[in-house]
Amino acid sequence: MNVCKSCGMQIRNVSDFGTYPDGSVNTEYCFHCYEEGHFTDQDITIEEKIARNIALALKLGISRKKALRKAVDTLPGLARWRKPGKKLTS
Ligand SMILES: [Zn+2]
Predict the structure, then answer these.
(1) Which residues lie below 8 Å from residue 30, measured CB to CB, with a gap of 6+?
(2) Predicted confidence band at 83 (pLDDT cuts at 50, 70, 90)?
(3) Domain range enclosing 20
(4) Which residues have a beta carbon within 5 Å of ligand 1, which is an ion?
(5) 67 CB contacts (<8 Å, ≥6 apart)?
(6) Spacing, Cα 51 to ligand 1 middle (Å)
(7) Ligand 1 centre from 15 Cα, in Å?
(8) I need a labelling partner for 8 at 20 to 30 A (CA). Which of 68, 76, 79, 85 fits?
(9) Average pLDDT of 4-22?
(10) What is the pLDDT of residue 69?
């Protein structure tokens, strides 16, 4: 199972992966996060990304509490957000 290393989304199809500028597939990230060689939300912070994930989850009918817990558990461990010395405060 592939998981996007930016948002934690499970990636089931090749078409869900992000792309490089030449159109080839970037298997690290999903197309929501990464397109044509750059992040779609380049300057976003992890806190903002968590808020965005929760907003998306709410649209999908997932409770805020559940979505928050999943995002806080998942995102700090993903490659995009793993920065030495940076701790998530919530
Ligand atoms: Zn993603």
Answers:
(1) 4, 6, 7, 9, 11, 16, 17, 18
(2) confident
(3) 2-77
(4) 4, 6-7, 9, 30, 32-33
(5) 53, 54, 57, 58
(6) 14
(7) 13
(8) 85
(9) 96
(10) 97
User: Tell me: the pLDDT tens digits for 24-78?
Assistant: 999 999 999 999 999 999 999 999 999 999 999 999 999 999 999 999 999 999 9
**Residue 48 counted as domain residue:** yes
Q: Which among 71, 4, 50, 61 has a CA at the least distance from the CA of 13?
A: 4
Task: Decide if 88 is inside a domain.
Answer: no
Q: Is residue 84 part of a domain?
A: no
Domain count, the chain: 1
Position 45 in a domain: yes
Distance 18 CA to ligand 1 centre (A): 8
